[in-house]
Amino acid sequence: MIKPLPYVEKIQPYVPGKPIKEVERELGIKRCFKLASNENPLGPSPKVVEAIKEFISNPEELARYPEGSGYYLKNALCEKFSKQGITISHDDLILGNGSNELIDIAVKTFLGPGDEAIMAKPSFIVYAMSVISQGGTAKEVPLKDWRHDLEGMLKEITDKTKIIFISNPNNPTGTMNYKEEFESFMKELPDGILLVMDEAYYEYVNKLDYPDTIKYFQEGRDILILRTFSKAYGLASLRIGYGIAKSEIIKEMNRIREPFNTNTIAQIAAEVALQDETHLKKVIEINELGKKYLYQELDKIPNIKYLPTQTNFIYIILPEDKSSKEIFESLLKEGVIIRPVGPREIRVTIGLPEENKAFIEGFKKSLNI
Ligand SMILES: Cc1ncc(COP(=O)(O)O)c(C=O)c1O
Hints:
Elements: H1 20-27, E1 33-34, H2 46-56, H3 59-62, H4 71-83, E2 93-96, H5 99-110, E3 116-121, H6 126-133, E4 137-142, H7 150-155, E5 161-167, H8 179-188, E6 194-198, H9 213-218, E7 223-228, E8 241-244, H10 247-256, H11 264-275, H12 277-299, E9 305-306, E10 313-317, H13 324-333, E11 336-337, E12 339-340, E13 345-349, H14 353-366
Parallel strand pairs: 1-11, 3-4, 3-5, 5-6, 6-7
Antiparallel strand pairs: 2-8, 7-8, 9-10, 10-13, 12-13
The structure holds pyridoxal-5'-phosphate.
Residues 38, 98-100, 124, 167, 171, 198, 200, 228, 230, 236, 241 line the site of pyridoxal-5'-phosphate.
């Protein structure tokens, strides 16, 4: 049989959150809650649903290729930033089939066999997968006090380093690095290394000292800021995200980008979603309420630890005599899907009140409380 490239065999395949239908089918459960993939439990704005219905009622449009440049969505993004006093042009933007695709495009554009990329451990697993798939080396720097060890990451830089990935806030811990420490990091970061700032959970952050990464883009630094419509905008199924970088970087990435990488429905949905600020506010409010409830209930459970989160998920460390696998399986039987992310660590997405309640009840039961 044909052999894969030697570095392809080194990739640990991504294990997605278990789908609801699969659990219902396998365990014969009627109602199952998925709190495993940091999806938005409220879904997208109703205005998005209307816009999609209108689009699909026109079969002729369905037969056409998408607008490859994403012109209208880019307009909407530029307008949104302009309202915040930030000037961004179409040339500074790139759309992706989820921000995931933009990670891949950045890697393919700037890193080759033998090159290195630096990232935290644990962090978003796709960074390492993408780097290894190009024959590069993923240098993982352990988190320090559950946050990116920015100084430690700088120390790992060699003349082979092409990319540094920072997930801020970080998946799976939900923690973030602050403005001041980030400022010092940026002072030390040499030119010629692409900093990929993955801000997939940006909309959920409620801390004032969140780093202003747009500032570094405006200063002309080698930075690519990634954001997504999969989380707070509730469009994970449509796969759409965007990147902001100086036009020289975007121009190079566009050479690698497939001509029609984002589909028309996703572009329309994202454009409409951006305009419904009331819905976004509601999403954040529900998340804050769910977070408060979960903190309150988790505080009552002995021998567990959780990390305060800046996202729509919570990282929980189990008692020493419990494994994440056994808790995952026992919660499945209660109809709640969560994500084991380490031997004793689980990650739970903040859901709607009834979902959060089902998790807490199932969690206590699986801990024999
Ligand atoms: C930190 C981080 N980055 C990127 C992504 C990818 O998001 P998407 O490809 O749906 O935009 C995720 C998804 O879970 C994530 O957690």
